[in-house]
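Record 1 of the preview.
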Amino acid sequence: RELPTVRFDVEPEVYRFFADHPDVAVSIWRVMKISQFKMFQTGPHEYEVDGQDGTVGIVDVAYSSPTEHLLLCEGSFKSPVTIRPIKARAVIHMQTSFTTNDDGKSSATHRVCFFASFPSQTIETAARLISPVSNTIVDRNLRETSLFVHMMSVAMSRHPGWVERVAEQLEGVLDASRQELLDVTARVYVAEQKRVLARMGHKDVTLDAVMATLRVAEEGAALRAAPPATASEGEPAMN
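->
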């Protein structure tokens, strides 16, 4: 089945990072408490997944490029109401293109084709019967995942400190992947600040100018996080 084509604003470097490190995205979901799904990198191109609902499996990245990914998936679902685990195999093919908008920002458009097979003819027939429901769920998951990548792109370009705090809480990811997340965040933030300064009329944007805006942002965040001042003893409190 071909899923709906989705287009959204995102820096290409951010998109490619999460396409190459899906386990980092999953770990961020857990930090943000939006999902209990688990994914662990067990090889250069292999991941183990656990949906925490009886679903477990293995994902192999058969092919990967800046604009194309091919995944081979094999897993099973075990429920108290089933005698045996329900097994399935799937192939996921994702194609991506990038464009630059009039405002200088970038957008990604991706198309996903999904192929699934079941060794049990009975289960395959049942899957076809419930496909109107399952297709809706898959479509929604694609849109929500796209929205997440867009959100992370915005966070990296505007709130790098938040990304750094999240990175410190990640579980089950390689140290190299955690460091790469921080490196990507730094590059995306610097690129965005250069664009902002250029729009303000600064022709020669230096790193010092970029760091100055970061210091101002950090000082503002520190002031907002500081506890409110209290009135001294014997002095009336100000409304």
